[in-house]
Amino acid sequence: MVRRYDPERRQRIIDAAIRLVGRGGIAGLSHRTVAAEADVPLGSTTYHFASLDELLVAALRQTNEGFATALTESGALADPECDIADELARITGRWLTQDPTGMELEYELYLAALRRPALRPVAAEWCVAVTGIVADRVDPVTARAVVALLDGICLQVLLTGREYDVGYTREMLRRILAASPQASASASAGHGAVPVD
Questions:
Q1: N or C, which end of the chain has less CB nearby within 10 Å?
Q2: For the segment 31-57, what is each residue's pLDDT rounded down to a tens digit?
């Protein structure tokens, strides 16, 4: 039997793992279930991913990319006149409503990192990436606080099923951003100010 060249197979395996975790959590994930979901031979999953942890790392890395990409693509945070709190609150709301299943999956994979040390560095990549984007406008300590707040709000929305409150998020972000030395300097200079109600 001639092997067919399939350059997309690795990606199909990752996508299948993401779908499986999204539907039933990590407990039901195995090379066999992923192979069946991806419609590939069992040997393909072990060829591309020697362990389930390797596969989970790839899945988590892929799910992590979305929010940081949305922030970068909006381009608004690069504008010194941008209301950072408003923009972050808006993008977070869009992210939560556009892809709640993706967000649930992301947190499922984060929680798996508590028990699977191989996932921990990848779980931290999201925080590092988003903090880096925000730190272009505020000091690094404030940027970390902003990311922690957004992370907590998203988790609360997912756990409680409550509707995302853009106004609350904006106000809490403004309170944190008001403490930033960079935001204070911008405000006193009269440009790129972070408004505080």
A1: N
A2: 999 999 999 999 999 999 999 999 998
